[in-house]
């Protein structure tokens, strides 16, 4: 008999064990390669002789180490879980090397009717003070119906042509590179493991897809400067296949946040995307 999750409103307020993440320029370069950066156009992300400049979403690598044991901490049993949404805001740019301590806490538990959704809010702090704030949503499949509050609905993409589009390529080895930044889930490299969980084949990590979207936003709306992107959020709608094209559609809405969605063909992979960039 499959062990079921133990969920109750009492989970809200649970503090996760603090973690510390250290990185060097090679780690930032490996991450950039993992989320699709390629020379020569993005050499500034890949060459220690000219930086490297660090993609702001590298902060989510440090955050992942803080929230990766959520299943065990909340006694989620064998219920399947998926990463449902992610947000990140930065106080300042991520340096090419450093050390950050991350404190995380369960801040909400929602009931979609069919599934449960757990929100974890994190703060990463280095020697200069808070560096980033993040919010992760984990969906526990099949564990809804416990009488909790439904999550807030999200806004659809604008009903007009995008103001910018960034086309990219997900290479066959993309997930194999990205997993070296920490998330070694076999679903992203072992076809047999993926099929056991109902997938046709391996697929890209959700946070890797978010890194692709961050690069798109920086290149289209941020003049190629990683420091221009100060916040980003999205929902993970569909898995991304390897060895395929990926495109991010971007809308500028006056003085408000930039809106975006990321697609493979006509299938939306990242939905309800918003971002803040200096100068936009």
UniProtKB/TrEMBL annotation:
GO molecular function list: (3S)-3-hydroxyacyl-CoA dehydrogenase (NAD+) activity; 17-beta-hydroxysteroid dehydrogenase (NAD+) activity; enoyl-CoA hydratase activity
Listed GO biological process terms: fatty acid beta-oxidation
Pfam family for this entry, one: MFE-2_hydrat-2_N
Protein name in UniProt: Acyl dehydratase
Peroxisomal multifunctional enzyme type 2-like N-terminal domain: residues covered: 26-139
Domain MaoC-like intervals: 156-264
Top-level taxon of origin: Bacteria
Similarity-based family: Belongs to the enoyl-CoA hydratase/isomerase family.
Organism whose genome encodes this protein: Mycolicibacterium novocastrense
Phylogenetic classification of the source organism: Bacteria, Bacillati, Actinomycetota, Actinomycetes, Mycobacteriales
